[in-house]
Design brief:
The complex is a heterodimer of chains A (299) and B (255). Chain A has 299 residues and is α/β, with parallel strands linked by helices. Chain A has helices at residues 76-87, 103-114, 142-155, 171-180, 219-230, 246-255, 265-268, 272-286; strands at 4-6, 9-11, 15-17, 39-45, 58-61, 64-67, 93-98, 121-125, 129-130, 136-137, 159-163, 185-188, 192-195, 197-198, 203-204, 210-214, 237-240, 257-262. Chain A has a single domain, classed as Aldolase class I (TIM Barrel, Alpha-Beta Barrel). In chain B, 13% of the residues lie in helices and 34% in strands. In chain B, 50% of the residues are buried. The A-B interface holds A 20-23, 27-28, 30-31, 51-52, 55-60, 62-65, 67, 69, 72, 215-216, 264, 266-271 and B 2-5, 43, 48-53, 94, 215-230, 234-235, 240. The complex binds flavin-adenine dinucleotide, flavin mononucleotide (FMN) and FE2/S2 (inorganic) cluster (FES).
Chain lengths: 299, 255
């Protein structure tokens, strides 16, 4: 009833976890049966191990939070040699979020992940700054976004999801550009650029001054963007941003998302994902829906 | 160690001052084993301004009654909302989280300041159950800032330092006459400047020392990487690899 499809990926239900909010899944194994999830998108993975930004990296804001973790991760080699072997036998789709500072780094990581049998897809995080282009985000310019997708497409053979940043004038233009460049799916939204100041201490809360806003506060923006993109591209759209209940997930599905991801809500209730799955099932039963695809994109 | 997400019922509340209170929380089932220094992530109910859970140390554990208690200092919106909870109310916890203190040494000093006193009660009980009676040194600006005192006496020799001299010796804990080199292990929790002064003393005198850190947290379970501290092996999550660290593992802590 809840099964859905993203390119070649069969998801037992549309509920996945968002990169950077669910570790490698292991952190949540005490709270839920990970095999119930439609998919797990693991932490942003880069060509080399990264330390990320300095502490403090987090501030709570109204109905949301700012983070400035900055891609701290073990690097693709350790992922392949160690982490992969701990999680590969889970009965769910494990998707690696691939990040980088240059096209070469994206390609190196994608190629190494391509060789891992039990990883059926990558999610290309193009919100990262392009170091060679003065730190401008790959995902903020249609040409740069298309270029990185085209290069990764040449060496990556499985399902290629491209994750879009909302910090752009027209997310539709970027979505179309990456579709043309060979993306199999797009996911959106990444965090919204934000800032908060501690007025008592007279300094920003984050070591990096600005950071990424997530949580319920961003949901209406995310639903709007998903709806716009779903109407503009022919590849499946994955929706995320502030989802904390089955009703939230349904908004994204109705707006046109074939699947959704849960991020910040995992911090508040580490068992939220299975509650959302149960809630979707309940909704379908109450509304006499035989197949969740009946309601996808009805708006 | 398995973690749980579960509801507790408030069965006891003590108000020590305008800023300090404690809650005793009961669970219908047996509690898992809880190490001293571990913490809970408590959901703050009924305050729309507070979305994330708040990390609070486990102050005391009573295995016979399936209760644990929290000692809380009101510093902002979340802790203020918690201070208005009453007996009979429910609180949802994710617990037990983090790595606690090692229970080692024969001549042991526990140094607490402010809300950092919280984990030291369970810690002194753990030492007592091993037949070791620690020296407990608690500090605060005034008497009112040291909310829990006689509770320690059955388990340790307890001393106080206040900046205004209203309780115990006048001055900082690090100026107290019991703050000497007569120990093989020092365990401390409190404001960072206090812990750093304690760490410097331990380092200078070759005393083993563990500190309990209070970094800002979002998830409390090692998933978000928001709570990191600089260690000899790079950034480590305070929520998962701490909150208790041996000072030898931390960077820039004894300078
Ligand atoms: C592992 C751990 C154990 C803790 N144990 C206890 C305990 O036993 N008793 C207790 O009273 N407190 C404890 N704390 C601190 C407690 O978590 C914070 O005081 C609390 O989260 C503040 O929430 P608030 O909504 O009241 O404050 P907010 O309104 O969010 O913030 C108010 C002010 O408090 C500061 N603040 C917020 N969070 C923290 C933090 N984590 N550490 C230091 N300052 C903070 C903010 O910078 C701000 O200036 C512990 C923290 C950690 C990480
Ligand atoms: C602490 C934290 C770390 C994140 N790390 C990543 C990351 O490594 N790669 C990525 O593509 N997105 C990352 N994100 C963005 C989330 O995956 C998601 O796009 C965003 O938080 C919006 O969803 P939410 O509101 O449900 O959290 C991170 C978000 C948070 C809060
Ligand atoms: S608070 Fe999320 S990793 Fe420590």
């Amino acid at each position: 009833m809840l099964q859905t499809k993203i390119h070649n990926l069969i998801l037992k239900n549309p509920v996945m976890t968002a990169s950077g909010t669910f570790g490698y899944g292991e952190e949540f194994a005490d709270f839920i049966d990970l095999n119930r999830l439609g998919g797990i998108v693991v932490k942003g993975t880069t060509g080399e191990r990264r330390q990320g930004n300095a502490y403090p990296r987090m501030a709570e804001t109204p109905s949301g939070m700012l983070n400035a973790v900055g891609l701290q991760n073990v690097g693709v080699e350790t992922f392949c040699n160690e982490v992969y072997h701990r999680i590969k036998d889970l009965d769910t789709n494990i998707i690696v979020n691939v990040s980088g500072s240059s096209i070469e780094e994206y390609c190196k990581t994608a190629a190494m992940i391509d060789a891992l049998e039990k990883i059926p897809a990558i999610e290309l995080n193009i919100s990262c700054p392009n170091v060679k282009k003065g730190g401008m985000g790959f995902g903020t310019n249609p040409d740069m976004a298309a270029q990185v997708v085209r290069e990764v497409r040449k060496i990556y053979h499985k399902t290629l999801i491209v994750k879009l940043t909302p910090n752009v004038t027209s997310v539709v233009d970027i979505a179309k550009a990456v579709e043309d460049a060979g993306a199999d799916s797009v996911s959106l939204i990444n965090t919204l650029l934000g800032m908060a100041i501690d007025v008592e201490k007279q300094r920003p809360y984050l070591s990096t001054v600005t950071g990424g806003l997530s949580g319920p506060a961003v949901k209406p923006v995310a639903v709007r963007m998903v709806w716009q993109v779903a109407h503009a591209v022919n590849i499946p759209v994955i929706g995320l941003g502030g989802i904390a209940s089955a009703a939230d997930a349904l908004e994204f599905l109705m707006a046109g998302a074939k699947a959704i991801q849960v991020g910040t809500a995992n911090f508040i209730d580490p068992a939220i994902t299975v509650k959302i799955i149960d809630g979707l099932e309940d909704y379908c039963n109450r509304h006499g829906i035989k197949d969740i695809n009946e309601i996808i994109g009805i708006i | 160690m398995k973690k749980y997400i579960t509801d507790f019922t408030i069965v006891g509340k003590q108000v020590f001052s305008e800023t300090y209170f404690s809650l005793t929380l009961k669970h219908p089932d047996r509690l898992p084993e809880i190490a001293a220094g571990q913490f809970v992530e408590v959901e703050v109910p009924g305050n729309k301004q507070v979305m994330l859970r708040r990390p609070i140390s486990i102050h005391d554990v009573d295995v016979e009654n399936n209760t644990l208690s929290l000692l809380v200092q009101v510093v902002g919106k979340g802790t203020r909302t918690l201070s208005m909870m009453s007996v009979g109310d429910k609180l949802n916890l994710v617990y037990p989280l983090g790595h606690g203190f090692s229970i080692e040494g024969n001549k042991v000093l526990l140094v607490g300041g402010g809300a950092g006193i919280a984990p030291l009660l369970h810690l002194s009980k753990c030492f007592a159950s091993k037949g070791i009676r620690p020296t407990v040194l608690l500090g605060g600006r005034t008497e009112a800032m040291i909310p829990v005192r006689k509770e320690f006496e059955p388990y340790g020799d307890t001393f106080f330092a206040t900046e205004d001299g209203s309780l115990g010796e006048k001055g900082m804990v690090t100026q107290h006459s019991k703050f000497t080199t007569d120990y093989d292990h020092i365990y401390t929790c409190g404001p960072t400047p206090m812990m750093k002064a304690v760490a410097r003393h331990a380092m200078a005198n070759n005393i083993e020392c563990e500190v309990s850190l209070e970094n800002m947290m979002a998830c409390g379970i090692g998933a978000c990487l928001c709570c990191v501290v600089d260690s000899d092996e790079g950034h480590k999550c305070v929520c998962k690899e701490g909150p208790v660290f041996n000072i030898n593992k931390l960077k820039n802590w004894t300078k």
